[in-house]
Amino acid sequence: MFKKLFMNKVWTVSVLFAISVALYGIDFSIFGNLREISASFLGNLAFLPIYIIVVTLLFEKVLRERERQSVMRKLNMVIGVFFSEFGNHLLKELSVHVAGSEELKKHLRMTGSWKKEDFDASLDFLRQSNQRISIDRDALTSLKQFMAGKRSFLLSLLENQNLFEHENFTDLLWAVFHLTEELKARESFDRMPPSDKEHINGDIKRVFAHLIREWILYMQHLKEDYPYLFSLAVRLNPMIDSPDPVVYQE
Question: For residue 82, which of 180, 185, 160 has the smallest C-alpha distance?
Protein backbone atom coordinates (compact mmCIF):
# COMPACT_ATOMS: atom_id res chain seq x y z
CA MET A 1 0.00 0.00 0.00
CA PHE A 2 2.79 2.42 0.99
CA LYS A 3 4.74 1.59 -2.17
CA LYS A 4 1.69 2.26 -4.32
CA LEU A 5 1.12 5.67 -2.70
CA PHE A 6 4.78 6.55 -3.13
CA MET A 7 4.72 5.60 -6.83
CA ASN A 8 1.58 7.68 -7.35
CA LYS A 9 3.32 10.72 -5.86
CA VAL A 10 6.41 10.15 -8.04
CA TRP A 11 4.19 9.84 -11.10
CA THR A 12 2.32 13.06 -10.23
CA VAL A 13 5.54 15.03 -9.67
CA SER A 14 7.01 13.70 -12.91
CA VAL A 15 3.94 14.68 -14.91
CA LEU A 16 3.84 18.18 -13.44
CA PHE A 17 7.57 18.65 -14.09
CA ALA A 18 7.17 17.47 -17.67
CA ILE A 19 4.28 19.92 -18.20
CA SER A 20 6.41 22.79 -16.85
CA VAL A 21 9.34 21.90 -19.13
CA ALA A 22 7.00 21.61 -22.11
CA LEU A 23 5.48 25.05 -21.44
CA TYR A 24 8.91 26.66 -21.14
CA GLY A 25 9.90 24.88 -24.38
CA ILE A 26 6.85 26.30 -26.17
CA ASP A 27 7.69 29.76 -24.83
CA PHE A 28 11.26 29.48 -26.13
CA SER A 29 10.18 28.13 -29.54
CA ILE A 30 7.77 31.05 -30.03
CA PHE A 31 9.74 33.98 -28.62
CA GLY A 32 13.29 32.55 -28.59
CA ASN A 33 14.36 34.76 -25.69
CA LEU A 34 16.27 32.52 -23.27
CA ARG A 35 17.32 35.50 -21.11
CA GLU A 36 13.73 36.56 -20.48
CA ILE A 37 12.66 32.98 -19.77
CA SER A 38 15.52 32.61 -17.26
CA ALA A 39 14.60 35.88 -15.55
CA SER A 40 10.96 34.80 -15.35
CA PHE A 41 11.95 31.41 -13.94
CA LEU A 42 14.21 32.94 -11.28
CA GLY A 43 11.52 35.48 -10.37
CA ASN A 44 8.93 32.74 -9.88
CA LEU A 45 11.46 30.67 -7.94
CA ALA A 46 12.18 33.65 -5.64
CA PHE A 47 8.47 33.98 -4.83
CA LEU A 48 8.00 30.25 -4.31
CA PRO A 49 8.62 30.34 -0.52
CA ILE A 50 6.01 33.12 -0.21
CA TYR A 51 3.54 31.06 -2.23
CA ILE A 52 4.18 28.09 0.04
CA ILE A 53 3.68 30.18 3.20
CA VAL A 54 0.40 31.69 1.97
CA VAL A 55 -1.00 28.38 0.71
CA THR A 56 0.07 26.57 3.89
CA LEU A 57 -1.56 29.14 6.16
CA LEU A 58 -4.80 29.13 4.17
CA PHE A 59 -4.85 25.35 4.01
CA GLU A 60 -4.17 25.10 7.74
CA LYS A 61 -7.00 27.55 8.47
CA VAL A 62 -9.43 25.57 6.33
CA LEU A 63 -8.42 22.33 8.04
CA ARG A 64 -8.83 23.87 11.51
CA GLU A 65 -12.28 25.17 10.64
CA ARG A 66 -13.36 21.80 9.23
CA GLU A 67 -12.04 20.07 12.35
CA ARG A 68 -13.86 22.55 14.60
CA GLN A 69 -17.13 22.00 12.73
CA SER A 70 -16.67 18.23 12.97
CA VAL A 71 -16.08 18.46 16.73
CA MET A 72 -19.12 20.70 17.20
CA ARG A 73 -21.33 18.29 15.24
CA LYS A 74 -20.23 15.43 17.47
CA LEU A 75 -20.65 17.58 20.56
CA ASN A 76 -24.16 18.62 19.61
CA MET A 77 -25.06 14.96 19.20
CA VAL A 78 -23.85 14.35 22.77
CA ILE A 79 -25.82 17.35 24.02
CA GLY A 80 -28.90 16.01 22.24
CA VAL A 81 -28.55 12.67 24.03
CA PHE A 82 -28.08 14.53 27.32
CA PHE A 83 -31.36 16.41 26.97
CA SER A 84 -33.24 13.40 25.64
CA GLU A 85 -32.16 11.08 28.46
CA PHE A 86 -31.81 13.52 31.33
CA GLY A 87 -31.95 17.26 30.71
CA ASN A 88 -35.54 17.63 29.51
CA HIS A 89 -36.94 15.72 32.48
CA LEU A 90 -34.79 17.67 34.94
CA LEU A 91 -35.78 20.95 33.30
CA LYS A 92 -39.47 20.12 33.64
CA GLU A 93 -39.10 19.05 37.27
CA LEU A 94 -37.13 22.11 38.34
CA SER A 95 -39.20 24.67 36.43
CA VAL A 96 -42.21 23.87 38.62
CA HIS A 97 -40.36 25.26 41.64
CA VAL A 98 -39.18 28.49 40.01
CA ALA A 99 -40.78 31.61 41.46
CA GLY A 100 -42.77 33.23 38.65
CA SER A 101 -42.50 30.11 36.52
CA GLU A 102 -45.47 31.14 34.37
CA GLU A 103 -43.63 34.26 33.21
CA LEU A 104 -40.57 32.15 32.41
CA LYS A 105 -42.59 29.58 30.49
CA LYS A 106 -44.30 32.34 28.51
CA HIS A 107 -40.92 33.41 27.13
CA LEU A 108 -40.03 29.82 26.24
CA ARG A 109 -43.15 28.69 24.37
CA MET A 110 -41.26 27.98 21.19
CA THR A 111 -42.91 27.47 17.84
CA GLY A 112 -41.68 26.30 14.47
CA SER A 113 -41.59 29.91 13.29
CA TRP A 114 -39.03 31.06 15.87
CA LYS A 115 -36.08 32.98 14.41
CA LYS A 116 -32.70 33.99 15.77
CA GLU A 117 -34.22 37.14 17.24
CA ASP A 118 -36.66 35.05 19.30
CA PHE A 119 -33.89 32.89 20.74
CA ASP A 120 -31.83 36.01 21.51
CA ALA A 121 -34.83 37.57 23.27
CA SER A 122 -35.29 34.48 25.46
CA LEU A 123 -31.61 34.52 26.41
CA ASP A 124 -31.84 38.24 27.22
CA PHE A 125 -34.82 37.53 29.47
CA LEU A 126 -32.79 34.93 31.37
CA ARG A 127 -29.87 37.34 31.81
CA GLN A 128 -32.11 40.09 33.12
CA SER A 129 -34.19 37.93 35.43
CA ASN A 130 -33.12 36.32 38.68
CA GLN A 131 -34.81 32.95 39.02
CA ARG A 132 -35.52 32.00 42.61
CA ILE A 133 -36.07 28.32 43.41
CA SER A 134 -37.56 26.75 46.50
CA ILE A 135 -38.09 22.98 46.68
CA ASP A 136 -39.89 21.20 49.48
CA ARG A 137 -38.83 17.98 51.21
CA ASP A 138 -40.90 15.60 49.07
CA ALA A 139 -39.61 17.14 45.84
CA LEU A 140 -36.01 16.84 47.06
CA THR A 141 -36.51 13.14 47.73
CA SER A 142 -37.89 12.59 44.23
CA LEU A 143 -35.10 14.68 42.70
CA LYS A 144 -32.47 12.70 44.60
CA GLN A 145 -33.82 9.39 43.30
CA PHE A 146 -33.94 10.61 39.71
CA MET A 147 -30.44 12.12 39.67
CA ALA A 148 -28.85 9.19 41.50
CA GLY A 149 -30.38 6.84 38.94
CA LYS A 150 -28.75 8.80 36.10
CA ARG A 151 -25.29 9.02 37.65
CA SER A 152 -23.81 6.28 35.40
CA PHE A 153 -25.20 8.01 32.33
CA LEU A 154 -23.66 11.33 33.36
CA LEU A 155 -20.31 9.68 34.04
CA SER A 156 -20.35 8.18 30.54
CA LEU A 157 -20.74 11.68 29.10
CA LEU A 158 -17.55 12.82 30.79
CA GLU A 159 -15.65 10.11 28.92
CA ASN A 160 -16.32 12.01 25.70
CA GLN A 161 -13.25 14.19 25.10
CA ASN A 162 -15.20 16.50 22.79
CA LEU A 163 -17.02 17.92 25.81
CA PHE A 164 -13.89 19.81 26.83
CA GLU A 165 -14.35 21.92 23.69
CA HIS A 166 -17.59 23.29 25.18
CA GLU A 167 -16.77 25.06 28.43
CA ASN A 168 -20.33 26.11 29.26
CA PHE A 169 -21.73 22.61 28.85
CA THR A 170 -18.89 21.23 30.95
CA ASP A 171 -19.83 23.74 33.67
CA LEU A 172 -23.40 22.42 33.49
CA LEU A 173 -22.23 18.84 34.00
CA TRP A 174 -20.08 19.81 36.99
CA ALA A 175 -23.01 21.67 38.54
CA VAL A 176 -25.24 18.61 38.01
CA PHE A 177 -22.64 16.27 39.54
CA HIS A 178 -22.21 18.54 42.54
CA LEU A 179 -25.95 18.65 43.16
CA THR A 180 -26.18 14.88 42.80
CA GLU A 181 -23.44 14.38 45.40
CA GLU A 182 -25.06 16.90 47.78
CA LEU A 183 -28.39 15.07 47.59
CA LYS A 184 -26.80 11.62 47.92
CA ALA A 185 -24.87 12.74 51.01
CA ARG A 186 -28.13 13.33 52.90
CA GLU A 187 -29.99 10.22 53.99
CA SER A 188 -33.12 12.24 54.76
CA PHE A 189 -34.44 15.74 54.17
CA ASP A 190 -36.52 15.74 57.34
CA ARG A 191 -35.81 18.56 59.77
CA MET A 192 -33.47 20.40 57.43
CA PRO A 193 -32.26 23.62 59.04
CA PRO A 194 -33.04 26.74 56.99
CA SER A 195 -29.34 27.23 56.24
CA ASP A 196 -29.06 23.75 54.68
CA LYS A 197 -32.24 24.20 52.68
CA GLU A 198 -30.91 27.51 51.39
CA HIS A 199 -27.63 25.83 50.43
CA ILE A 200 -29.40 23.07 48.47
CA ASN A 201 -31.68 25.56 46.75
CA GLY A 202 -28.57 27.53 45.75
CA ASP A 203 -27.07 24.43 44.13
CA ILE A 204 -30.35 23.73 42.34
CA LYS A 205 -30.54 27.32 41.12
CA ARG A 206 -27.02 27.00 39.66
CA VAL A 207 -28.00 23.82 37.82
CA PHE A 208 -31.21 25.36 36.50
CA ALA A 209 -29.44 28.51 35.26
CA HIS A 210 -26.90 26.47 33.29
CA LEU A 211 -29.49 23.97 32.13
CA ILE A 212 -32.06 26.44 30.76
CA ARG A 213 -29.42 28.42 28.88
CA GLU A 214 -27.85 25.35 27.25
CA TRP A 215 -31.32 24.07 26.35
CA ILE A 216 -32.19 27.29 24.50
CA LEU A 217 -28.88 27.22 22.62
CA TYR A 218 -29.39 23.56 21.70
CA MET A 219 -32.90 24.29 20.44
CA GLN A 220 -31.50 27.12 18.32
CA HIS A 221 -28.94 24.71 16.87
CA LEU A 222 -31.73 22.28 15.95
CA LYS A 223 -33.77 25.07 14.37
CA GLU A 224 -30.84 26.16 12.17
CA ASP A 225 -29.36 22.79 11.22
CA TYR A 226 -32.00 20.09 11.82
CA PRO A 227 -35.52 21.52 11.36
CA TYR A 228 -37.16 18.08 11.53
CA LEU A 229 -35.59 17.43 14.94
CA PHE A 230 -36.58 20.92 16.06
CA SER A 231 -40.20 20.18 15.12
CA LEU A 232 -40.36 17.23 17.51
CA ALA A 233 -38.40 19.08 20.21
CA VAL A 234 -40.93 21.94 20.08
CA ARG A 235 -43.82 19.51 20.51
CA LEU A 236 -42.05 17.91 23.48
CA ASN A 237 -41.01 21.25 24.97
CA PRO A 238 -40.46 20.57 28.72
CA MET A 239 -41.41 24.16 29.49
CA ILE A 240 -45.04 23.72 28.51
CA ASP A 241 -47.63 22.07 30.74
CA SER A 242 -48.83 19.32 28.38
CA PRO A 243 -46.26 18.33 25.76
CA ASP A 244 -47.80 16.33 22.90
CA PRO A 245 -45.78 14.69 20.11
CA VAL A 246 -48.86 14.33 17.87
CA VAL A 247 -48.99 16.61 14.81
CA TYR A 248 -52.43 18.16 14.37
CA GLN A 249 -53.75 19.71 11.19
CA GLU A 250 -53.92 23.47 11.39
Answer: 160
